[in-house]
C-alpha cells in the first residue's frame, strides 16, 4: 500500500493524502511546501522535509518558471479565480485585467453556482460581489469557511462604503475587502498580497551555535607529545638498520595522528549536522504550532465580530422600538388634543344654543 503524507501548507497541516490525491486536491506545489510521512506524524515526531526531497512526492512538484519570465508572472500564472458580479461591465473588466495578468478566471451568477463550481473544480481565489440573489457575498464567504476543510482565499468586491460593512466582513471570514473604485493596480496588488506566503521562499531556521569540541590532545596520540599546531621534532636518524626502523616508526606515528584528526573532524561534523537537523525539526514543529494558533485567533476574531454585529443589530432594534413608541405617543397626544378641541367647540355650540333658547323663552314673556 502506498504511503500517505501530511502537508504543511499555507500555515496549516493537511492530510494524510496519497501522492495522487495531493495532485488532484492542490495541483502542483512549490518546493517550499513541507511534508511528513503518516507514520512519523502519528508517532508524534514528524520529520518535516521539502517535498522536493521525498521521492514519492516528486510528481507533485511544480516545475520552475521558463527562462525570461519574471518571478511575479510565474507566481501568478497558476492562480485559478472564480468571480461573481451582476454587472456585465465589471465582469468584462475583471476578465480582461486578470487574464492579462496571467490568471484563469471563471464567473458564477450567484452563491448556488459558486458552491456548484467549487464542487467541480479547485480554485485558489473567490471574488464575491455583495449584492447577489438568494445569498449575499458575506453569507457565501461564511458558508465556505464553515463547510470546507480547506477553503480558497476569499475577497469581497463591493460598491458600498467599506467602513459601514466592517463587522459583516469580519464575521464572514473573508481574507480581503475592496471597493470597486480602487483601481486596477490596487486590485492586482491585493491579490498578490493574499498569496505572498505561498510565493515567498521558506524561511531558513536560525543557525544554532554548537561549541566545537576540542580535538584529542596530542599526548593521547603521540607518547612523546608536542603542542597542537607545532611541527613534530624528528630526531636525527641513527645510522644503518636502526635508521630505517626509526623512519618507519615516525611515518606510522604521523599517519596515526592524521587519522585521529580526521576522526575527530568527522565526529565534530556529525554532531553539528545532528544539532542542525534537530533545529530544523524544532523550527518545523514551531511553525505548525504557530499556524494552529493563527487559526484559533482567526476563529476568535470571527466570533467577536459576530458578537459585535449582534450587539449592533440589537441596539438598532431598541432604537427603532423607541422611535416607534415615541411616534405612537406623539400621534396619541395629537389625537387627544384634536378631540379636546372638538369637545370645546361642541360645548361652546351647546352653550350658545341653550342661550338662544333661553332668550327665545324670556323675550315674549317680557313683552
What's this entry about, in short?
The protein is of the alpha/beta class. The chain has eleven helices and nine strands. About 13% of the residues have low confidence.
Q: How would you describe this protein?
A:
The protein is an alpha/beta fold and 367 residues long. Among the domains are: 5-60, no CATH class; 71-201, Rossmann fold (3-Layer(aba) Sandwich). 56% of the residues lie in helices and 11% in strands. It has 11 helices and 9 strands. It has helices at residues 19-26, 38-42, 71-76, 88-100, 111-120, 137-147, 166-172, 184-194, 196-199, 218-221, 241-366; strands at 5-9, 12-17, 34-37, 49-50, 80-84, 104-108, 125-129, 153-158, 176-179. Strands 6-5-7-8-9 form a 5-stranded parallel sheet, sandwiched between helices. A 4-stranded antiparallel sheet has the order 2-1-3-4. α6 packs parallel to α7 and α7 crosses α11 (241-366). The protein is elongated, with a radius of gyration of 41 Å. The model is unreliable at 64-76 and 207-239 (pLDDT under 50).
CATH architecture of the domain at 71-201: 3-Layer(aba) Sandwich
Q: Characterize the main sheet.
A: 5 strands, parallel
Backbone structural class: alpha/beta
What's the alpha carbon Rg, rounded to whole Å? 41 Å
The helix tally amounts to 11
CATH superfamily of the domain at 71-201: Response regulator
Beta-strand proportion: 5-15%
Helix percent band: 55-70%
Task: Give the SSE map.
Blueprint: E1 5-9, E2 12-17, H1 19-26, E3 34-37, H2 38-42, E4 49-50, H3 71-76, E5 80-84, H4 88-100, E6 104-108, H5 111-120, E7 125-129, H6 137-147, E8 153-158, H7 166-172, E9 176-179, H8 184-194, H9 196-199, H10 218-221, H11 241-366
Parallel strand pairs: 5-6, 5-7, 7-8, 8-9
Antiparallel strand pairs: 1-2, 1-3, 3-4
Amino acid at each position: 500500500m502506498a504511503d500517505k503524507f501530511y502537508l504543511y501548507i499555507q500555515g496549516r497541516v493537511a492530510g494524510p493524502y496519497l501522492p495522487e490525491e495531493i495532485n488532484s486536491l492542490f495541483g502542483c506545489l512549490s518546493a517550499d511546501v513541507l511534508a511528513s510521512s503518516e507514520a512519523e506524524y502519528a508517532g508524534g515526531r514528524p520529520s518535516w522535509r521539502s517535498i522536493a526531497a521525498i521521492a514519492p512526492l516528486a510528481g507533485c512538484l511544480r516545475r520552475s518558471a521558463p527562462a525570461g519570465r519574471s518571478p511575479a508572472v510565474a507566481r501568478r500564472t497558476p492562480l485559478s479565480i472564480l468571480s461573481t458580479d451582476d454587472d456585465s461591465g465589471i465582469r468584462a473588466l475583471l476578465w480582461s485585467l486578470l487574464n492579462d495578468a496571467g490568471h484563469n478566471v471563471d464567473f458564477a451568477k450567484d452563491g448556488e453556482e459558486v458552491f456548484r463550481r467549487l464542487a467541480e473544480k479547485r480554485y485558489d481565489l473567490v471574488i464575491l460581489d455583495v449584492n447577489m440573489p438568494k445569498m449575499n457575498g458575506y453569507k457565501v464567504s461564511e458558508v465556505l469557511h464553515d463547510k470546507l476543510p480547506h477553503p480558497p482565499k476569499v475577497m469581497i468586491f463591493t460598491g458600498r462604503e467599506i467602513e459601514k460593512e466592517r463587522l459583516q466582513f469580519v464575521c464572514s471570514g473573508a481574507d480581503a475587502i475592496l471597493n470597486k473604485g480602487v483601481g486596477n493596480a490596487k486590485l492586482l496588488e491585493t491579490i498578490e498580497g493574499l498569496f505572498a506566503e505561498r510565493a515567498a521562499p521558506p524561511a531558513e531556521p536560525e543557525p544554532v551555535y554548537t561549541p566545537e569540541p576540542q580535538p584529542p590532545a596530542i599526548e593521547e596520540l603521540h607518547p612523546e607529545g608536542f603542542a597542537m599546531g607545532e611541527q613534530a621534532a624528528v630526531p636525527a636518524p641513527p645510522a644503518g638498520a636502526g635508521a630505517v626502523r626509526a623512519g618507519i616508526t615516525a611515518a606510522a606515528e604521523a599517519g596515526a595522528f592524521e587519522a585521529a584528526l580526521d576522526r575527530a573532524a568527522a565526529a565534530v561534523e556529525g554532531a553539528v549536522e545532528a544539532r542542525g537537523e534537530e533545529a530544523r525539526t524544532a523550527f518545523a514543529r514551531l511553525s505548525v504550532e504557530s499556524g494552529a494558533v493563527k487559526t484559533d485567533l482567526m476563529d476568535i476574531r470571527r466570533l467577536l465580530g459576530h458578537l459585535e454585529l449582534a450587539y449592533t443589530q440589537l441596539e438598532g432594534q431598541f432604537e427603532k422600538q423607541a422611535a416607534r413608541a415615541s411616534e405612537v405617543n406623539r400621534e396619541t397626544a395629537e389625537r387627544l388634543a384634536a378631540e379636546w378641541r372638538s369637545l370645546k367647540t361642541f360645548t361652546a355650540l351647546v352653550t350658545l344654543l341653550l342661550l338662544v333658547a333661553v332668550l327665545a323663552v324670556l323675550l315674549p314673556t317680557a313683552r
